[in-house]
Every structure is written in C-alpha cells, then in structure tokens.
C-alpha cells in the first residue's frame, strides 16, 4: 500500500491512500490528490508504477514539481519517504501514514472528528413545498456518549459524508466528501449510496438505491442512523 501525506506550513492537512495505482496531483477536483491552491496547475504532476517501481512526472505545470527540493524534468524515480513539493504544499510519499510532532495535533483532531457527528439540517436543497411540509419521518443519529440527535426529514434531498455542506457529517481520514444521499420520491424516502463502501443497511452492504422502511438501521462507517416514521 502507498499513501500521500499532504502538508502545508509543516502541518499535516490530509492523507490520501493511493494503493498500488497511478494517481494525479493537481488543483482540479477530479485529481486523486487534490490541492486547492492557485499556485498548483489543474493537473500538476502524476505518480505511476511500472515493473514494481514508482515514478513521479511533472505534467507541464506552470510552477514546476520538486522532488526532495530539486526541480524535476521528465520522470524521476520515487521512493518511500521522498517529499514532493507542488506550489506551497509538501507531499510525503509513504508506505504507511506516519505521525510526527508537527502533525500530532492534527491527527488528534482527526481522531476526535471520527468520533463526532455534526448535524446540519439547513444544508442541502429542497423545494419550498417540501420544506413547508411537516415531516413525518426522521433520522435518529446515535453519537458518542450515548447521545442521540434527531434530524426531521421535511425536504426532498439529504446528504451524508465528510463535506461541509452535508446534512449529516461523518469524519475520518479516508471518509469521502459524499457517501450517500437520502431522496424523497412521492411519500417514501430512498437511500442511494454514492460510493460502494462505508455504508450498510440492517447489517448488509448497500450498492444500489433502496427504499427505507420504519426502524431501518443505516451504518455509515462508525455512525448509526435509524430511520423512523413518526
């Protein structure tokens, strides 16, 4: 396995698992390693693997790609522990995520976020008519310390994931920005997975849209959501 640790001003910002596959680095959101900084090109650099060896290549970026402090031209061999610099960000290529003094506080915050659930009823969108309806469905969200939050469902569309705009936010290092959607069609709500992992319905993995019924249990990573009809 292989990972890219993303640092800014010596502070660990994120860890991206790339496994044994090639990946791109850049400002565009479709890159596996996404750096949202104007000093980074849309597709800035690429990491690839050939014949058991890793390679780094600059993709004609505007500001160049640096490997261990030296600007590269063409392809350069990449080894675990090497540091790639794009714009103002340092990317450490590792076989296992590491913890350092500079990143321990960040890692502790990430661990706390993995245990903490943020409910954002105002996020997402829905028609005015849907918003005006008095909800007769809800999600009971089981958080840490046995506390339970209730999210009344009175809109047509809800989202679950790590993204700041999600109605139900779930943290963790490798949590996708959007894991699943809950959509109202007629008088019923449907669970629609966006990724093919991280989510179970009544103990079973879900890979397609499923109509929700009273007392269904939705497990998203370590967070339990119970769908209830009031």
Layout of helices and strands, plus pairs?
Layout: E1 3-8, E2 11-17, E3 23-26, E4 33-34, E5 45-50, E6 53-58, E7 65-67, E8 70-71, E9 75-78, E10 83-86, E11 89-94, H1 104-115, E12 117-119, H2 128-132, E13 137-142, E14 148-153, E15 157-161, E16 168-170, E17 180-185, E18 188-193, E19 199-201, E20 204-205, E21 210-211, E22 216-220, E23 223-229
Parallel strand pairs: 3-4, 15-16
Antiparallel strand pairs: 1-2, 1-11, 3-5, 5-6, 6-9, 7-8, 7-10, 10-11, 12-16, 13-14, 13-23, 15-17, 17-18, 18-21, 19-20, 19-22, 22-23
Quick structural summary:
Helix content is 7%, strand content 45%. It has two helices and 23 strands. A six-stranded antiparallel β-sheet has the order 2-1-11-10-7-8.
Please tell me about this protein's structure.
By secondary structure, the protein is mainly beta. It has 2 domains: 2-95, Tumour Suppressor Smad4; 137-229, Tumour Suppressor Smad4 (Sandwich). The protein has helices at residues 104-115, 128-132, and strands spanning 3-8, 11-17, 23-26, 33-34, 45-50, 53-58, 65-67, 70-71, 75-78, 83-86, 89-94, 117-119, 137-142, 148-153, 157-161, 168-170, 180-185, 188-193, 199-201, 204-205, 210-211, 216-220, 223-229. It has a 6-stranded antiparallel sheet. The radius of gyration is 21 Å and the shape is elongated.
């Amino acid at each position: 396995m292989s990972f890219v640790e993303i640092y800014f001003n010596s502070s660990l910002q994120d860890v991206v698992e790339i496994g044994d596959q090639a990946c791109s680095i850049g400002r565009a959101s479709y890159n596996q390693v996404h750096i949202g900084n104007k000093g980074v090109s849309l597709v800035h650099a690429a990491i690839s693997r050939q014949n058991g060896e890793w390679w780094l290549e600059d993709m004609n970026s505007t500001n160049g790609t640096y490997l261990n402090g030296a600007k590269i031209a063409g392809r350069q061999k990449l080894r675990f522990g090497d540091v790639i610099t794009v714009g103002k960000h340092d990317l450490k290529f590792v076989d296992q995520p590491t913890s350092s003094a500079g990143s321990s506080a960040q890692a502790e915050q990430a661990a706390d976020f993995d245990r903490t659930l943020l409910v954002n009823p105002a996020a997402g969108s829905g028609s005015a008519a849907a918003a005006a309806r008095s909800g007769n469905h809800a999600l009971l969200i089981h958080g840490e310390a046995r506390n339970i939050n209730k999210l009344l469902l009175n809109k047509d569309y809800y989202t679950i994931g790590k993204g700041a705009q999600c109605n139900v936010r779930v943290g963790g290092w490798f949590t996708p920005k959007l894991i699943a959607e809950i959509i109202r069609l007629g008088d019923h709500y449907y669970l629609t997975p966006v990724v093919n992992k991280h989510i179970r319905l009544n103990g079973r993995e879900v890979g397609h849209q499923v109509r929700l019924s009273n007392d269904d249990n939705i497990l998203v990573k370590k967070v339990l959501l119970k769908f209830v009809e009031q």
